[in-house]
Amino acid sequence: MKYFMLAFPVALIALMSFAPAGPQKPQMAQPSLDEWGRDRLAWTCDFKEEDSDGFDKICAYDCAGWRKEIKVDRYDDCPSSIKE
């Protein structure tokens, strides 16, 4: 019993040394697979539509579910697909 009374405070102090020093910053939510893929994977984007914007032409593409737009010269053709 004598050793138990001595071991308990020693064990408690040892466990407290692993406690965080202060308040932790909240962790950001994990990105979805779709968001992760946009940054890390190369996609082939298929041509969807074009629109005129003054001296430029805006080419819109469908990139695995999200829209990507590029500007080209007014007299150039939009590429049939682009790599994202």
Q: Outline of this structure?
A:
With 84 residues, the chain is an alpha+beta fold.
Overview of the structural elements:
Residues 1-21 form the signal peptide. The chain is an alpha+beta fold. The relative contact order is 0.16. The protein has two helices and four strands; from the N terminus they run ααββββ. The chain has helices at residues 2-16, 33-40, and strands at 44-53, 56-63, 66-73, 81-83. It starts with a helix and ends with a strand. The mean pLDDT is 78. The protein has a domain at 42-84.
* Helicity range: 25-40%
Q: Any low-confidence stretches, pLDDT <50, length ≥5?
A: none
Question: What's the rounded overall pLDDT mean?
Answer: 78
The biggest beta sheet, please? Answer: 4 strands, antiparallel
Helix-and-strand structural type: alpha+beta
Strand proportion, as a percent range, falls in 25-35%
Number of helices: 2
Distance between the termini: 70 Å
Cα-atom Rg, whole angstroms? 29 Å
Number of DSSP strands?
4
Shape: rod-shaped
List the helices and strands in order.
HHEEEE
As laid out across the biggest beta sheet, the strand order is 3-2-1-4
Topology:
Blueprint: H1 2-16, H2 33-40, E1 44-53, E2 56-63, E3 66-73, E4 81-83
Antiparallel strand pairs: 1-2, 1-4, 2-3
Characteristics:
84 residues; alpha+beta; 4 strands; 27% helix; signal
